[in-house]
Amino acid sequence: MIKELLLGKRIGETIKINGWVRTFRNNQFIALNDGSTISNIQLVIDFKEYEDTILKRINPGTAIYAEGQLVESLGKGQKVEIKVAKLVILGDSDPEKYPLQPKRHSLEFLREIAHLRFRTNTFGAIFRVRNSLSFAIHKFFNDNGFVYMHTPIITASDAEGAGEMFKVTTLDLDDVPKTENGHADYRQDFFEQATNLTVSGQLEAELGAMAFSKVYTFGPTFRAENSNTSRHLAEFWMIEPEIAFADITDDMNLAEDLLKYVIKYTLDNNLEDLEFLQQRLIQEEKQKPQNQRSEQALIEKLEFVLNNDFERLSYTEAINILMRSKPNKKKKFKYIIDKWGADLQSEHERYLVEKHFKKPVILTDYPKDIKAFYMKVNDDNNTVRAMDILFPGIGEIVGGSQREENLEMLLKRMEEMDVPAEEMQWYLDTRRYGSAEHAGFGLGFERLVLFVTGMSNIRDVIPFPRYPGSAKF
Ligand code: 4AD
Ligand code: MG
User: Fold this and answer.
1) pLDDT tens-digit profile of 203-232?
2) DSSP-derived secondary structure letter, 353
3) Atom of ligand 1 nearest to the CA of 202
4) Which residue range forms the structural domain that includes residue 44?
Protein backbone atom coordinates (compact mmCIF):
# COMPACT_ATOMS: atom_id res chain seq x y z
CA MET A 1 0.00 0.00 0.00
CA ILE A 2 1.03 3.61 -0.53
CA LYS A 3 1.82 4.18 3.14
CA GLU A 4 4.50 1.50 2.98
CA LEU A 5 5.89 2.55 -0.42
CA LEU A 6 6.38 6.13 0.77
CA LEU A 7 8.79 4.91 3.43
CA GLY A 8 11.21 4.56 0.51
CA LYS A 9 12.55 1.15 1.53
CA ARG A 10 11.68 -0.53 -1.76
CA ILE A 11 13.47 1.77 -4.20
CA GLY A 12 14.45 -0.06 -7.38
CA GLU A 13 11.73 -2.69 -7.05
CA THR A 14 8.90 -3.19 -9.54
CA ILE A 15 5.70 -2.22 -7.79
CA LYS A 16 2.08 -3.18 -8.46
CA ILE A 17 -0.39 -0.69 -7.17
CA ASN A 18 -4.13 0.12 -7.05
CA GLY A 19 -5.76 3.38 -6.06
CA TRP A 20 -7.89 6.37 -6.97
CA VAL A 21 -6.61 9.39 -8.86
CA ARG A 22 -6.64 12.61 -6.88
CA THR A 23 -5.16 14.85 -9.61
CA PHE A 24 -3.53 14.49 -13.03
CA ARG A 25 -1.13 17.26 -14.12
CA ASN A 26 0.56 17.99 -17.44
CA ASN A 27 -0.63 14.69 -18.91
CA GLN A 28 2.24 13.24 -16.90
CA PHE A 29 1.89 13.24 -13.12
CA ILE A 30 -0.82 11.27 -11.33
CA ALA A 31 -1.33 11.82 -7.60
CA LEU A 32 -2.69 8.46 -6.44
CA ASN A 33 -4.31 7.67 -3.10
CA ASP A 34 -5.42 4.33 -1.65
CA GLY A 35 -6.63 5.50 1.77
CA SER A 36 -3.70 3.96 3.70
CA THR A 37 -2.25 7.42 4.34
CA ILE A 38 -3.10 11.04 3.78
CA SER A 39 -0.16 11.33 1.37
CA ASN A 40 -0.49 10.51 -2.31
CA ILE A 41 2.12 8.70 -4.33
CA GLN A 42 3.21 10.26 -7.60
CA LEU A 43 2.99 8.12 -10.72
CA VAL A 44 4.92 9.40 -13.71
CA ILE A 45 3.67 8.33 -17.12
CA ASP A 46 5.16 8.86 -20.56
CA PHE A 47 2.18 10.36 -22.41
CA LYS A 48 3.62 9.47 -25.80
CA GLU A 49 2.95 5.85 -24.89
CA TYR A 50 -0.80 6.36 -24.42
CA GLU A 51 -3.72 7.14 -26.70
CA ASP A 52 -5.43 10.44 -26.03
CA THR A 53 -8.61 8.54 -25.26
CA ILE A 54 -6.85 6.81 -22.37
CA LEU A 55 -5.29 10.01 -21.01
CA LYS A 56 -8.71 11.67 -21.00
CA ARG A 57 -10.00 8.91 -18.71
CA ILE A 58 -7.48 9.73 -15.97
CA ASN A 59 -9.59 12.04 -13.83
CA PRO A 60 -10.17 12.80 -10.16
CA GLY A 61 -11.83 9.71 -8.72
CA THR A 62 -10.79 7.25 -11.46
CA ALA A 63 -9.71 3.85 -10.12
CA ILE A 64 -6.50 2.57 -11.70
CA TYR A 65 -4.00 -0.26 -11.53
CA ALA A 66 -0.36 0.46 -12.34
CA GLU A 67 2.97 -1.33 -12.51
CA GLY A 68 6.38 0.25 -12.58
CA GLN A 69 9.65 0.88 -10.84
CA LEU A 70 9.81 2.77 -7.55
CA VAL A 71 12.50 5.41 -7.98
CA GLU A 72 13.83 8.40 -6.09
CA SER A 73 11.94 11.47 -7.21
CA LEU A 74 13.72 14.31 -8.96
CA GLY A 75 10.84 16.68 -8.33
CA LYS A 76 10.08 18.64 -5.21
CA GLY A 77 7.44 17.52 -2.73
CA GLN A 78 8.01 13.78 -2.72
CA LYS A 79 10.88 11.44 -1.95
CA VAL A 80 9.81 8.62 -4.26
CA GLU A 81 7.66 8.11 -7.33
CA ILE A 82 6.66 5.28 -9.64
CA LYS A 83 7.85 5.24 -13.25
CA VAL A 84 4.79 3.64 -14.81
CA ALA A 85 5.34 0.80 -17.30
CA LYS A 86 1.76 -0.45 -17.36
CA LEU A 87 -1.46 1.38 -16.61
CA VAL A 88 -4.99 -0.06 -16.51
CA ILE A 89 -8.12 1.97 -15.95
CA LEU A 90 -10.34 -0.03 -13.62
CA GLY A 91 -13.22 2.38 -13.11
CA ASP A 92 -13.96 5.67 -14.82
CA SER A 93 -15.06 8.81 -13.05
CA ASP A 94 -16.78 11.41 -15.22
CA PRO A 95 -15.11 14.75 -14.38
CA GLU A 96 -18.24 16.65 -15.44
CA LYS A 97 -20.33 14.81 -12.87
CA TYR A 98 -17.95 13.76 -10.04
CA PRO A 99 -18.99 15.87 -7.03
CA LEU A 100 -15.48 15.99 -5.52
CA GLN A 101 -13.49 18.50 -7.46
CA PRO A 102 -9.86 19.13 -6.53
CA LYS A 103 -10.73 22.20 -4.45
CA ARG A 104 -11.91 23.01 -0.93
CA HIS A 105 -15.47 21.86 -0.22
CA SER A 106 -17.48 22.93 2.83
CA LEU A 107 -18.16 20.36 5.56
CA GLU A 108 -21.88 20.95 5.08
CA PHE A 109 -21.63 20.07 1.39
CA LEU A 110 -19.58 16.97 2.17
CA ARG A 111 -22.21 15.84 4.69
CA GLU A 112 -24.67 15.73 1.79
CA ILE A 113 -22.34 13.34 -0.05
CA ALA A 114 -21.21 11.31 2.94
CA HIS A 115 -20.86 8.26 0.67
CA LEU A 116 -17.96 9.99 -1.11
CA ARG A 117 -16.43 12.14 1.61
CA PHE A 118 -14.03 9.40 2.78
CA ARG A 119 -12.04 10.27 -0.34
CA THR A 120 -11.14 13.74 0.90
CA ASN A 121 -8.05 14.50 2.96
CA THR A 122 -10.08 15.69 5.92
CA PHE A 123 -12.38 12.68 6.15
CA GLY A 124 -9.61 10.25 5.33
CA ALA A 125 -7.71 11.62 8.32
CA ILE A 126 -10.77 11.62 10.62
CA PHE A 127 -11.68 8.01 9.88
CA ARG A 128 -8.14 6.71 10.16
CA VAL A 129 -7.96 8.39 13.59
CA ARG A 130 -11.36 6.91 14.48
CA ASN A 131 -10.06 3.47 13.52
CA SER A 132 -6.93 3.91 15.66
CA LEU A 133 -8.94 5.05 18.65
CA SER A 134 -11.19 2.05 18.31
CA PHE A 135 -8.25 -0.35 18.14
CA ALA A 136 -6.51 1.41 21.05
CA ILE A 137 -9.61 1.00 23.22
CA HIS A 138 -9.69 -2.75 22.61
CA LYS A 139 -5.95 -2.97 23.17
CA PHE A 140 -6.09 -1.07 26.45
CA PHE A 141 -8.79 -3.31 27.88
CA ASN A 142 -7.31 -6.50 26.51
CA ASP A 143 -3.88 -5.67 27.94
CA ASN A 144 -5.49 -4.97 31.30
CA GLY A 145 -7.41 -8.23 31.65
CA PHE A 146 -10.90 -7.06 30.71
CA VAL A 147 -13.39 -9.37 28.98
CA TYR A 148 -15.11 -7.83 25.96
CA MET A 149 -18.82 -8.41 26.27
CA HIS A 150 -21.51 -8.07 23.59
CA THR A 151 -24.62 -6.70 25.24
CA PRO A 152 -27.98 -6.85 23.44
CA ILE A 153 -29.11 -4.18 21.00
CA ILE A 154 -32.78 -5.06 21.39
CA THR A 155 -33.97 -4.83 24.97
CA ALA A 156 -37.18 -5.00 26.93
CA SER A 157 -35.83 -3.04 29.88
CA ASP A 158 -36.47 0.67 29.87
CA ALA A 159 -35.08 1.13 33.34
CA GLU A 160 -31.92 3.04 32.54
CA GLY A 161 -33.80 6.29 32.04
CA ALA A 162 -30.94 7.67 29.96
CA GLY A 163 -33.10 8.99 27.16
CA GLU A 164 -36.05 8.49 24.86
CA MET A 165 -36.08 5.11 23.14
CA PHE A 166 -36.79 3.83 19.65
CA LYS A 167 -39.43 1.12 19.62
CA VAL A 168 -38.71 -2.21 17.95
CA THR A 169 -41.79 -3.97 16.59
CA THR A 170 -43.09 -6.15 13.78
CA LEU A 171 -46.69 -5.14 14.45
CA ASP A 172 -48.49 -3.67 11.47
CA LEU A 173 -48.51 0.03 12.26
CA ASP A 174 -51.58 0.55 10.08
CA ASP A 175 -53.51 -2.02 12.03
CA VAL A 176 -52.12 -2.35 15.55
CA PRO A 177 -53.85 -5.00 17.71
CA LYS A 178 -55.28 -3.43 20.86
CA THR A 179 -55.78 -4.60 24.45
CA GLU A 180 -59.10 -4.24 26.28
CA ASN A 181 -57.93 -0.77 27.45
CA GLY A 182 -57.16 0.38 23.95
CA HIS A 183 -53.34 0.21 24.21
CA ALA A 184 -51.13 -1.54 21.65
CA ASP A 185 -51.14 -5.25 22.46
CA TYR A 186 -47.47 -6.17 22.53
CA ARG A 187 -48.31 -9.74 23.59
CA GLN A 188 -49.02 -10.23 19.89
CA ASP A 189 -45.69 -8.65 18.90
CA PHE A 190 -42.56 -10.55 17.86
CA PHE A 191 -41.09 -10.79 21.38
CA GLU A 192 -44.52 -10.97 23.03
CA GLN A 193 -43.64 -7.81 24.93
CA ALA A 194 -42.68 -4.23 24.16
CA THR A 195 -39.06 -3.82 23.07
CA ASN A 196 -36.68 -0.97 22.25
CA LEU A 197 -33.24 -0.28 20.91
CA THR A 198 -30.85 -0.10 23.84
CA VAL A 199 -29.74 3.25 25.29
CA SER A 200 -26.86 1.62 27.19
CA GLY A 201 -25.31 -1.79 27.79
CA GLN A 202 -24.58 -1.00 31.41
CA LEU A 203 -27.14 -3.15 33.20
CA GLU A 204 -26.00 -6.26 31.32
CA ALA A 205 -22.34 -5.25 31.76
CA GLU A 206 -22.92 -5.22 35.52
CA LEU A 207 -24.05 -8.86 35.29
CA GLY A 208 -20.84 -9.70 33.45
CA ALA A 209 -18.66 -7.86 35.95
CA MET A 210 -20.14 -10.02 38.72
CA ALA A 211 -18.50 -13.05 37.07
CA PHE A 212 -15.46 -11.82 35.14
CA SER A 213 -14.50 -9.00 37.56
CA LYS A 214 -13.61 -6.68 34.69
CA VAL A 215 -15.67 -6.33 31.50
CA TYR A 216 -16.31 -3.72 28.85
CA THR A 217 -18.78 -3.22 26.05
CA PHE A 218 -18.16 -1.28 22.85
CA GLY A 219 -21.19 -1.03 20.66
CA PRO A 220 -23.93 1.12 19.19
CA THR A 221 -26.52 2.76 21.43
CA PHE A 222 -29.63 4.66 20.45
CA ARG A 223 -31.38 7.70 21.83
CA ALA A 224 -34.46 9.27 20.30
CA GLU A 225 -33.94 12.62 21.98
CA ASN A 226 -34.89 15.45 19.71
CA SER A 227 -31.60 17.21 20.29
CA ASN A 228 -30.35 18.81 17.13
CA THR A 229 -26.94 19.75 18.49
CA SER A 230 -23.34 19.38 17.39
CA ARG A 231 -22.79 16.96 20.33
CA HIS A 232 -25.73 14.54 19.97
CA LEU A 233 -26.48 11.65 17.66
CA ALA A 234 -29.50 9.34 17.62
CA GLU A 235 -27.12 6.41 17.01
CA PHE A 236 -23.73 6.59 18.68
CA TRP A 237 -21.08 4.16 19.89
CA MET A 238 -20.38 3.82 23.56
CA ILE A 239 -17.62 2.12 25.56
CA GLU A 240 -18.85 0.88 28.93
CA PRO A 241 -16.37 -0.76 31.29
CA GLU A 242 -17.66 -2.25 34.53
CA ILE A 243 -15.31 -3.28 37.35
CA ALA A 244 -16.06 -5.36 40.45
CA PHE A 245 -14.44 -4.83 43.84
CA ALA A 246 -13.99 -1.20 42.87
CA ASP A 247 -15.27 2.17 44.08
CA ILE A 248 -15.74 5.58 42.48
CA THR A 249 -12.04 6.46 42.85
CA ASP A 250 -11.02 3.30 40.98
CA ASP A 251 -13.61 4.24 38.37
CA MET A 252 -12.17 7.73 37.89
CA ASN A 253 -8.63 6.36 37.72
CA LEU A 254 -9.67 3.84 35.07
CA ALA A 255 -11.38 6.50 32.95
CA GLU A 256 -8.42 8.88 33.17
CA ASP A 257 -5.95 6.10 32.32
CA LEU A 258 -8.05 4.95 29.35
CA LEU A 259 -8.43 8.44 27.91
CA LYS A 260 -4.71 9.18 28.24
CA TYR A 261 -3.75 5.83 26.75
CA VAL A 262 -5.90 6.15 23.63
CA ILE A 263 -4.88 9.76 23.02
CA LYS A 264 -1.22 8.78 23.29
CA TYR A 265 -1.84 5.88 20.93
CA THR A 266 -3.10 8.21 18.20
CA LEU A 267 -0.22 10.64 18.75
CA ASP A 268 2.17 7.71 18.32
CA ASN A 269 0.40 6.19 15.31
CA ASN A 270 -1.49 8.95 13.45
CA LEU A 271 0.79 11.96 13.65
CA GLU A 272 0.55 12.76 9.93
CA ASP A 273 -3.25 12.78 10.06
CA LEU A 274 -3.26 14.84 13.25
CA GLU A 275 -0.85 17.36 11.73
CA PHE A 276 -3.19 17.70 8.76
CA LEU A 277 -6.23 18.13 11.03
CA GLN A 278 -4.31 20.68 13.09
CA GLN A 279 -3.64 22.78 9.97
CA ARG A 280 -7.27 22.43 8.90
CA LEU A 281 -8.41 23.76 12.28
CA ILE A 282 -6.01 26.70 12.12
CA GLN A 283 -7.40 27.61 8.69
CA GLU A 284 -11.00 27.24 9.86
CA GLU A 285 -10.40 29.40 12.92
CA LYS A 286 -8.88 32.21 10.87
CA GLN A 287 -12.46 33.14 10.02
CA LYS A 288 -13.30 33.53 13.69
CA PRO A 289 -12.59 36.54 15.93
CA GLN A 290 -9.37 36.17 17.94
CA ASN A 291 -11.15 35.52 21.25
CA GLN A 292 -13.02 32.51 19.81
CA ARG A 293 -9.94 30.75 18.50
CA SER A 294 -8.37 27.84 20.38
CA GLU A 295 -5.60 28.82 22.74
CA GLN A 296 -3.65 25.69 21.89
CA ALA A 297 -3.05 24.00 18.54
CA LEU A 298 -4.57 20.51 18.24
CA ILE A 299 -1.47 18.46 19.02
CA GLU A 300 -0.44 20.74 21.87
CA LYS A 301 -3.94 20.33 23.31
CA LEU A 302 -3.69 16.52 23.13
CA GLU A 303 -0.28 16.57 24.78
CA PHE A 304 -1.61 18.88 27.46
CA VAL A 305 -4.30 16.32 28.36
CA LEU A 306 -1.68 13.57 28.56
CA ASN A 307 0.63 15.54 30.80
CA ASN A 308 -1.81 16.92 33.35
CA ASP A 309 -3.97 15.33 36.01
CA PHE A 310 -7.68 15.86 35.53
CA GLU A 311 -9.14 18.27 38.10
CA ARG A 312 -11.39 16.35 40.50
CA LEU A 313 -14.04 18.17 42.51
CA SER A 314 -17.55 17.64 43.81
CA TYR A 315 -20.74 18.91 42.23
CA THR A 316 -21.23 21.08 45.34
CA GLU A 317 -17.84 22.75 44.85
CA ALA A 318 -18.64 23.26 41.17
CA ILE A 319 -21.98 24.90 41.99
CA ASN A 320 -20.23 27.30 44.34
CA ILE A 321 -17.73 28.24 41.62
CA LEU A 322 -20.53 28.71 39.10
CA MET A 323 -22.69 30.82 41.45
CA ARG A 324 -19.77 33.17 42.03
CA SER A 325 -18.78 33.25 38.35
CA LYS A 326 -18.96 36.38 36.19
CA PRO A 327 -21.34 35.00 33.53
CA ASN A 328 -23.73 33.88 36.27
CA LYS A 329 -23.67 37.24 38.09
CA LYS A 330 -23.99 39.16 34.84
CA LYS A 331 -26.77 36.82 33.68
CA LYS A 332 -24.75 35.78 30.63
CA PHE A 333 -25.69 32.09 31.10
CA LYS A 334 -28.93 31.03 29.49
CA TYR A 335 -29.68 29.03 32.64
CA ILE A 336 -28.73 31.01 35.76
CA ILE A 337 -27.49 28.87 38.64
CA ASP A 338 -29.29 30.08 41.73
CA LYS A 339 -29.34 27.02 43.95
CA TRP A 340 -27.80 23.70 44.80
CA GLY A 341 -29.56 20.90 42.95
CA ALA A 342 -29.68 22.49 39.50
CA ASP A 343 -28.75 20.22 36.60
CA LEU A 344 -25.63 21.49 34.84
CA GLN A 345 -26.07 22.57 31.25
CA SER A 346 -23.32 22.39 28.69
CA GLU A 347 -22.64 26.15 29.07
CA HIS A 348 -21.81 25.55 32.76
CA GLU A 349 -19.67 22.51 32.06
CA ARG A 350 -17.74 24.39 29.43
CA TYR A 351 -17.22 27.37 31.73
CA LEU A 352 -15.65 25.12 34.37
CA VAL A 353 -13.38 23.37 31.88
CA GLU A 354 -12.49 26.13 29.44
CA LYS A 355 -12.52 29.27 31.60
CA HIS A 356 -12.05 28.28 35.22
CA PHE A 357 -9.77 25.22 35.33
CA LYS A 358 -8.54 25.19 31.73
CA LYS A 359 -8.14 21.39 31.81
CA PRO A 360 -10.28 18.24 31.93
CA VAL A 361 -12.47 18.12 35.01
CA ILE A 362 -14.10 15.22 36.87
CA LEU A 363 -17.22 16.19 38.80
CA THR A 364 -18.43 13.81 41.51
CA ASP A 365 -21.20 13.42 44.06
CA TYR A 366 -24.18 14.87 42.21
CA PRO A 367 -27.62 15.37 43.79
CA LYS A 368 -29.41 12.02 43.75
CA ASP A 369 -32.55 13.56 42.20
CA ILE A 370 -30.85 14.32 38.88
CA LYS A 371 -29.10 10.95 38.48
CA ALA A 372 -30.06 7.33 37.74
CA PHE A 373 -31.54 4.88 40.27
CA TYR A 374 -28.55 2.52 40.31
CA MET A 375 -25.99 5.01 41.65
CA LYS A 376 -24.76 4.46 45.20
CA VAL A 377 -26.19 6.96 47.65
CA ASN A 378 -23.64 8.73 49.89
CA ASP A 379 -23.95 8.83 53.68
CA ASP A 380 -25.44 12.35 53.44
CA ASN A 381 -28.46 10.68 51.77
CA ASN A 382 -28.56 13.60 49.32
CA THR A 383 -25.84 12.91 46.81
CA VAL A 384 -24.78 9.87 44.77
CA ARG A 385 -21.36 8.54 43.78
CA ALA A 386 -21.66 9.73 40.21
CA MET A 387 -18.73 11.01 38.21
CA ASP A 388 -18.84 12.93 34.93
CA ILE A 389 -15.73 13.85 32.97
CA LEU A 390 -15.86 17.16 31.15
CA PHE A 391 -13.48 17.97 28.29
CA PRO A 392 -12.54 21.30 26.72
CA GLY A 393 -14.62 22.07 23.63
CA ILE A 394 -16.77 19.00 24.24
CA GLY A 395 -18.42 19.17 27.64
CA GLU A 396 -19.44 15.76 29.03
CA ILE A 397 -17.39 12.98 27.47
CA VAL A 398 -17.81 10.33 30.22
CA GLY A 399 -20.69 9.59 32.59
CA GLY A 400 -20.30 6.94 35.27
CA SER A 401 -20.78 5.95 38.88
CA GLN A 402 -20.24 3.53 41.68
CA ARG A 403 -23.31 1.26 41.73
CA GLU A 404 -25.62 0.57 44.65
CA GLU A 405 -24.69 -2.98 45.67
CA ASN A 406 -26.98 -3.23 48.68
CA LEU A 407 -30.30 -4.92 47.77
CA GLU A 408 -32.48 -3.05 50.27
CA MET A 409 -31.03 0.34 49.34
CA LEU A 410 -31.39 -0.38 45.65
CA LEU A 411 -35.03 -1.49 46.03
CA LYS A 412 -35.74 1.69 47.96
CA ARG A 413 -34.21 3.86 45.21
CA MET A 414 -36.17 1.97 42.55
CA GLU A 415 -39.38 2.60 44.38
CA GLU A 416 -38.56 6.31 44.84
CA MET A 417 -37.83 6.64 41.15
CA ASP A 418 -40.70 4.49 39.86
CA VAL A 419 -38.48 1.81 38.37
CA PRO A 420 -40.48 -1.45 38.18
CA ALA A 421 -38.66 -4.02 40.32
CA GLU A 422 -40.74 -6.99 39.09
CA GLU A 423 -39.26 -6.73 35.58
CA MET A 424 -35.73 -6.38 36.88
CA GLN A 425 -35.31 -9.55 38.93
CA TRP A 426 -32.38 -10.64 36.76
CA TYR A 427 -30.58 -7.40 37.62
CA LEU A 428 -31.46 -7.61 41.31
CA ASP A 429 -30.14 -11.19 41.51
CA THR A 430 -26.56 -9.84 41.37
CA ARG A 431 -27.35 -8.05 44.64
CA ARG A 432 -28.84 -11.24 46.10
CA TYR A 433 -26.01 -13.62 45.33
CA GLY A 434 -22.47 -12.53 46.05
CA SER A 435 -23.03 -8.81 45.73
CA ALA A 436 -19.90 -6.70 45.76
CA GLU A 437 -18.86 -3.10 45.38
CA HIS A 438 -18.62 -2.22 41.69
CA ALA A 439 -18.43 0.76 39.38
CA GLY A 440 -18.35 1.68 35.72
CA PHE A 441 -18.77 4.43 33.18
CA GLY A 442 -19.82 5.18 29.63
CA LEU A 443 -17.47 6.94 27.24
CA GLY A 444 -19.15 8.47 24.18
CA PHE A 445 -16.96 7.30 21.33
CA GLU A 446 -17.88 10.06 18.87
CA ARG A 447 -17.25 12.72 21.51
CA LEU A 448 -13.78 11.23 21.95
CA VAL A 449 -13.20 11.29 18.17
CA LEU A 450 -14.41 14.91 18.10
CA PHE A 451 -11.90 15.87 20.75
CA VAL A 452 -8.94 14.10 19.16
CA THR A 453 -9.62 15.30 15.60
CA GLY A 454 -10.48 18.88 16.62
CA MET A 455 -13.66 18.73 14.52
CA SER A 456 -16.60 20.73 15.78
CA ASN A 457 -19.66 18.77 14.63
CA ILE A 458 -20.33 15.21 15.79
CA ARG A 459 -21.94 14.46 12.40
CA ASP A 460 -18.49 14.68 10.86
CA VAL A 461 -16.83 11.98 12.96
CA ILE A 462 -19.21 9.03 12.34
CA PRO A 463 -19.42 7.69 8.79
CA PHE A 464 -23.19 7.97 8.37
CA PRO A 465 -24.75 10.09 11.11
CA ARG A 466 -28.31 9.56 12.33
CA TYR A 467 -30.07 12.60 13.79
CA PRO A 468 -33.59 14.02 13.85
CA GLY A 469 -34.84 14.17 10.28
CA SER A 470 -31.99 12.16 8.75
CA ALA A 471 -31.20 8.49 8.28
CA LYS A 472 -29.70 8.87 4.81
CA PHE A 473 -27.21 6.32 3.42
O1 4AD B 1 -24.05 9.78 30.63
P2 4AD B 1 -24.69 8.65 29.87
O3 4AD B 1 -26.12 8.76 29.52
O4 4AD B 1 -24.38 7.36 30.73
C5 4AD B 1 -24.88 6.10 30.53
O6 4AD B 1 -25.50 5.74 29.58
C7 4AD B 1 -24.42 5.13 31.60
N8 4AD B 1 -25.24 3.92 31.50
C9 4AD B 1 -22.96 4.83 31.40
C10 4AD B 1 -22.38 3.86 32.39
O11 4AD B 1 -22.22 4.21 33.56
N12 4AD B 1 -22.04 2.65 31.97
O13 4AD B 1 -23.87 8.42 28.51
C14 4AD B 1 -22.48 8.17 28.55
C15 4AD B 1 -21.75 9.01 27.51
C16 4AD B 1 -21.89 10.51 27.70
O17 4AD B 1 -20.98 10.98 28.65
C18 4AD B 1 -21.59 11.01 26.30
O19 4AD B 1 -20.18 11.04 26.07
C20 4AD B 1 -22.18 9.93 25.43
O21 4AD B 1 -22.29 8.77 26.21
N22 4AD B 1 -23.50 10.29 24.90
C23 4AD B 1 -23.75 10.66 23.62
N24 4AD B 1 -22.93 10.78 22.55
C25 4AD B 1 -23.50 11.15 21.38
N26 4AD B 1 -24.83 11.37 21.20
C27 4AD B 1 -25.68 11.25 22.25
N28 4AD B 1 -26.99 11.46 22.07
C29 4AD B 1 -25.15 10.88 23.53
N30 4AD B 1 -25.69 10.67 24.74
C31 4AD B 1 -24.68 10.30 25.55
MG1 MG C 1 -24.51 11.63 31.39
Assistant:
1) 999 999 999 999 999 999 999 988 889 999
2) I
3) 12
4) 2-99
